[in-house]
C-alpha cells in the first residue's frame, strides 16, 4: 500500500482524483459535442454541383418534380446532410445507381424528416419510407433499386407517389 508522509493510505485520494478527472473529461466531451453539433446550411458544395433532373410520375395523372441528381459517389454520400429544413423542402434529390443495388440511407446531419421513394429497374416505385432526423437505423429498400428519391416528408403522398407508380427521367 502506498502511504503519504503521515502514514495515511493514498489509494483513496488517488481514486477520488481519478473519479474527478473522469467526470471532468466526460463533461468536457459532452460540452465539446454540443459545441460541434453541425448547424444547418442554406447550401452545400455537393448539392450546388448536382445537375437538375425532371422526373415524371404516373401515367393518367402525371406529376413532374425537378430534383437534384446525385449520380456520383461523392454526391450520393453528401445527400441532404447539413441543409436547413426550408432548403430540404424545396430540394428533392434523386440518387441514381449504375446497376440495381440495395443501398442503405442514414439521417446523420439531416435537419428535417424525409420521404424516400425507391424505384426498381422497371422504373416502378417499390416502396416509400419515412426517415426522421436523429434516426439511428438505416433505411433500405425491400429489393434492388436503380434510384431513390429523397424529398420532404409528406411530399410523396401529396404527389400520389406510392408503390406501383411508374417514374421516368
UniProtKB/TrEMBL annotation:
InterPro entries reported for this sequence: DUF192, Saro_0823-like_sf
Superkingdom assignment: Bacteria
Pfam annotation, one family: DUF192
PROSITE patterns: PROKAR_LIPOPROTEIN
Residues spanning the signal sequence: none
Keywords: Membrane, Transmembrane, Transmembrane helix
Bilayer-spanning residue ranges: 12-35
PANTHER family the UniProt entry points to: UPF0127 PROTEIN MJ1496 (PTHR37953:SF1)
The protein's name: Uncharacterized ACR, COG1430
Species annotation: Aquisalimonas asiatica
Amino acid at each position: 500500500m502506498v502511504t503519504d508522509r503521515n502514514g495515511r493510505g493514498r489509494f483513496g485520494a488517488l481514486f477520488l482524483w481519478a473519479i474527478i478527472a473522469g467526470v471532468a473529461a466526460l463533461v468536457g466531451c459532452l460540452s465539446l459535442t454540443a459545441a460541434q453539433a453541425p448547424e444547418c446550411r442554406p447550401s452545400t458544395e455537393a448539392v450546388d454541383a448536382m445537375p437538375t433532373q425532371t422526373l415524371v410520375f404516373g401515367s393518367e395523372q402525371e406529376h413532374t418534380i425537378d430534383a437534384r441528381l446525385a449520380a456520383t459517389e461523392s454526391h450520393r454520400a453528401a445527400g441532404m446532410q447539413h441543409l436547413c429544413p426550408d432548403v430540404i423542402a424545396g430540394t428533392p434529390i434523386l440518387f441514381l445507381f449504375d446497376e440495381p443495388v440495395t443501398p442503405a440511407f442514414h439521417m446523420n446531419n439531416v435537419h428535417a424528416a424525409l420521404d424516400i421513394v425507391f424505384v426498381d429497374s422497371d422504373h416502378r416505385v417499390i416502396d416509400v419510407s419515412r426517415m426522421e432526423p436523429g434516426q439511428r437505423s438505416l433505411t433500405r429498400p425491400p429489393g434492388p433499386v436503380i434510384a431513390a428519391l429523397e424529398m420532404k416528408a409528406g411530399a410523396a403522398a401529396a404527389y400520389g407517389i406510392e408503390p406501383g407508380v411508374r417514374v421516368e427521367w
